[in-house]
Amino acid sequence: MAQIAPFAFEADEKVCKLYVEQLQDVVNGGDYMPMETTFSEEDDPNIFDHVYSSLIPYQHYLDFFDDGPKPQVYWIWVTSTCRYWRDLICGTPKLWCDIHVYRRPDWLKLCLPRAATQPSAGLVKLHFHCPDFPLFELNILFHRQYATSLQTITFGAHPVWTTFFRKLLSTTLPNLTTLDAYPHLTSFSAFLDINTTPDLALSADNAPRLDVLRLSLLGPPTSVDLFSRLRILELSEASWRIPFNTLLDILAACSSLERLRLDRVLADVTDIPRPGEGLRRPVITLPRLHTLVVTSPHTFRTYTQVLSHLGLPAVTVLRIASIFEGVVENGLSLLPETFSALLPPSSASRIRSLATIDTVEYIAYRDIYSLFGRTRFSSRNILQLSFDRSEANEHIPRDEPGWQGATKTGLRDLVRLVPANNLSNIQLHVDFTALDRGDLEVAIRTFPRLASLSLTGTGDVGRAWKILTPTDEEAEMLCPGLAAVTISDGVDGDGFYASEEFFDVLLRSLEARMARGARLRLLQLCLHHWTEDEYDTLQGKYLARLKKLVVGRVEYEHVESSDEDSGDGESNERMGESDDEDDEEDEDEVDEDD
């Protein structure tokens, strides 16, 4: 059911009555659907707009960093509290305690005293949405009766608000469980320098029940005791100025933590040892942590050292990413070192969910370097390692040795993060010409149970076929259970160009596999051709022969090239589909979750 933000508006009595009746249905569990037929023809259409135009879908800021399903929340902009709304609130205790405040204090003055004086209604959740709210009106929160009733405080990170809440949080809030400082639209202009972000001086003594802490643009706390009860910790756009050992002490105290997000907060961590240096500490086990997201540090070394100290037996989402803001010029040369802490044998025992991954997507193409791991029937990634060198960093040469070396390291080593026995689907998006034969062979050989292979990008993709099935009868055939292969074009006009040489290699490979009792059930080819005539010629020469070697379906598509001048508008027509239309069982066995 959609949620309605509890606000009223200025309108005449007739409209207010109508709206209250509609909203009461929602409170009672019904769905709210504004209907134009509710109004008669003589009603002023401006009244309809006034009531319903502000009722628009709007994603709740609390779900900003949440990767899961998001409830649909409707917001209503209001200017005052009308009598009918007051009557409704007086009879709905649930609405007393979930208080959303914009510019005017009317709503706060109506709900807060009622909720605080009647504990049976529950604890109070306060959400502040507008930095223009008169802060002197909040002095009532210092009254012991109101401070005791506070359970949740949400506000926009702004210097003025931060100053006020520093004072409030210096008092004792015994029932406060959630504190959320979200990035308001005005916050980024107020905090232009991430290194000057203020902090709230939180302590475990003043918020003994705090278990959800989300801070953006505010300095993270440094009190180790505060973290012992936290269930959710999300820190972003700030600078955590602490020594590395203190960071480890804080993580060791987070025994109850279920979700951890560190977004651009590790740049100023000091005294970070190099691998193999520093004091040896036991592995820090976070037994309940199911989601770990670390993004955009200025150096990759922090990644490596933090991960090498963590045991994550319950993690189901592991996301490590760096985007262009955090990239330094020598970042590429540190990339292999970054992920060394995750490589076996240590990762198998410390991150058990990696064993459930059966689909890997590896991208080393242009400015993106990523490795994704997920289960076959889910789009949610269990593992995500990514490095994005955007256009903002064009001063880094594209042919830098570090970039090419990192690409090879990723293909040969990073895929080893996933236990080989369960993996059945690989998607490669690379420049095949830039890779050595040995790099591809090691990667493919690692996964003997491979059933689906998707090859995307540019370069000489034919070498992949030569590796899968050498024509020499004495040579080993890799991946005997391979059932589906897809070869598709890249992005921005890049892709694989069809040629007789490519098809000859493909035919020899399929014939060699069939001779050894291995046949594909699906072959999809999406290739560029210099002309339509070339496509027609290759289709006529090879399509029928391919169908004889594939037990299921063969698809051969022409992808329009930017170099060709084809005006018929039919360049993406699918050609050569098998006559067998009852192959649904085969489709179920093929992973098409790109």
Word description of this protein:
This protein is α/β, with parallel strands linked by helices. Among the domains are: 3-91, no CATH class; 464-594, no CATH class. 28% of the residues lie in helices and 20% in strands. The chain contains 18 helices and 23 strands. The strands form 3 sheets. The chain has an 18-stranded mixed beta sheet. Helix 8 (187-190) links the parallel strand 7 (178-182) and strand 8. Helix 14 (437-445) packs across helix 15 (462-468) and helix 15 runs parallel beside helix 16 (500-515). The radius of gyration is 30 Å and the shape is elongated. The relative contact order is 0.05.
Mean pLDDT: 70
Characterize the largest beta sheet: strand count, sense, and whether it forms a barrel.
18 strands, mixed
Strand content: 15-25%
Nearest-angstrom radius of gyration?
A: 30 Å
Structural class: alpha/beta
Helix content: 25-40%
What's the N-to-C terminus distance? 31 Å
| Overall shape | elongated
Low-confidence stretches: 1-80, 187-195, 324-331, 391-403, 563-594
Overall strand count? 23
What is the tally of helical segments?
18
Multimeric state of these chains?
single chain
